[in-house]
Design a protein that fits this description.
The chain has ten helices and no strands. By secondary structure, it is mainly α.
Length: about 325
Amino acid sequence: MIRTALYAPWPERARSYPGAASIAVAAGFYALSSLPVIIGAAVYAIQSGSAGLPPRVMFALLLAQFVLWGVLTALWTSLIERRGLPSLGVQGRGAALRLLTGAGIGAGLIVLTGMAALAITAFIGAAPGDGLAGAEGESVDMRAIPADFVLLLAFVALVFLIQGAVEEWVFRGWLMSALTARWGVSTGVLVSSLVFMIFHAHVFVSGLVFGAMALATIGAMGMVFALISLTRGSILEAAGAHGVFNAIAVTAPALALYTASPDQSGDEVLESVFSAATGMAGEASGIAPQMAAQLIVMAAAALILLVFAARARSRSALAGSD
């Protein structure tokens, strides 16, 4: 039974499955897509004798994981649910402009998060240059950036652009529309955002307080992308925003830290930034102002979009009753 078509009408031959089944399928596909990372890490550990993965290998495996997850979801929607791209929030016409618009939104969220982090840092009394000075307060000379590190950051950015697009395809394109078809728009948006949040529960490895705050931030971010997709009638803007936000959130700090930390290699810098950005740095990492800033920005954006979406639905309902 298809109660509500979120983006575009479903084809007459389309199949709709219970919402719990859709969530289970998403979890199953994620588990299957994790196999390249698990197998690749095991093979590398056996061959090298080292448990840690160098960034080039790690990000190549992550790319394989997300591509496989997207392919599995595409096969399910095409062969099992028998749906076309429009019902999943993907439109060919104007796609490039939509993606660019989303990229601008993602960059704007990064800027707002940075401004909020600076405000929080100033409020708690930390010096703007903390972390960029030597042991006795002297400034550190910035070092040149080699071409191989630039290429590595470009590859990392590409991985995150694809990762953002795949997660929007899975959570907002497929899952949110599938849940909406069964449970209605409000429940579909809320539950898909909660599922997105739960899929990132690994952040609790860095402690209960850190994990709760990080998970709340991720939940607010999921709601932002869900509401962007809902109000725009497409996942393309959200895909662009998600990918660009994640790409900048990792590559920009890595570039800054590399230039200011001559005692660390490019791999060490990237590993440090990536573990902090993904909540895997451990309890000793603490709660940085950037995390609090991101939670504030995402929560505020979600609230604004929620009000906007509610008003748009009210206008649509009034127009339909005339």
